[in-house]
Fold each of these.
Amino acid sequence: MRLKSSIWVSAYIRRCMIEGAYAVVRRRGAEEAGAIFVKIDRLDGTADLFGPAPQTEFDEARPGDRAFIACLRAQPRPDAEIEKYLSRQIEFDPDIWVVEVEDRAGRNFLDRVIA
């Protein structure tokens, strides 16, 4: 069983703050199981974007863990491209979460990123 999206987001924001990065919920999605997108703003006009990994990438031994994948091939990308991508995702699924982290070094603080 997977942790509720709202609880995961709260814990993630706390982790970012502990590491010295500012994080905020830009868009609140479905409490139970909304897809979570994490934007890493590098504060130079570029950003990275991570979203849910495909189901095929989940570890059968730990099905409750969240896994993420880079949404765009080459990162970082201009902020406008990231925003356009997020707009398309919101049109497709209005229940998504968007968390934005400001970190000049581009640290994402995600436990599992699939390459």
Amino acid sequence: MAAKSRSQIIGEIEDYIDKNGGVFAQWFVGCTGAPKGMLFTQHGVKQKGDAWIARQAKDDLDAHDVVEYFVGTKRTKGRAKERRDTDLYVYAFKVKSHTRI
């Protein structure tokens, strides 16, 4: 996965949400160093059948800025956490009854 800019990640996630329901409040956005583990183990997202997306940012600052944009401006679910230099991936998933946020 090649690193992308903040605006590229925001655009791709917004497009993905639009194509998969379009209601930002039904989505969770976060950042991590291990997107697969976070999505499929921590949050219980199903790899096949659930709507999810992950993108690599250029650095942890960009990743956290993207999360802040979605949580603060678009009102997705998500939470502020202490920034770590390993948090290079932004992920989003549509919240379902079986997922954990």
Amino acid sequence: MIRIEGLWLAVEPLDLRAGTEAALARVVAVFGAARPHHAYLFTNRRANRLKVLVHDGIGVWLAARRLNSGKFVWPKDSLGTLTLSRAQFDALVLGLPWQRIGEAGVITVL
């Protein structure tokens, strides 16, 4: 299993035709570095596709997810990056409103 200690979300969309090298270059440009055991999330302009780049301490993994209908809930008015909790990440990849998930899975009003 790949250990993940930090989940980072890039607000600006990424051309998801990008491969591992282009995604890694974007991580370095947006986050400053690709840190071991951290995952970096990107979406396309329509927010119906998601890519996750994970640095496992040895190399990088690139995974993609697509929603057949609907969109990923993606911030539009935030600054360049956000940190996610595991519960927020789990909600995000399902297309749920992850911003409403607080500590211990408590749902709050925005």
Amino acid sequence: MRCVFVQFRCEPGKTYEVADRIYDREVVSELYSTSGEWDLIAKVYVPEEVDVGHYLNENLFGIEGIQRTLTTMTFKAF
């Protein structure tokens, strides 16, 4: 499994609705609300044999209320 972090900017007033929709899809390991430029951050484990872009697009990016995302690929956990 590959670990990626995805940050979400939500439409104003929609953060909790977006968080519920993300959580309901059961594809994130952890989901947090955050301060600053982004509203949410999710830790997602993507199967090795699956294309990360397609996986995230199919499972998360179509959720209503998301304005923008930022995906960070990881390499090694310490």
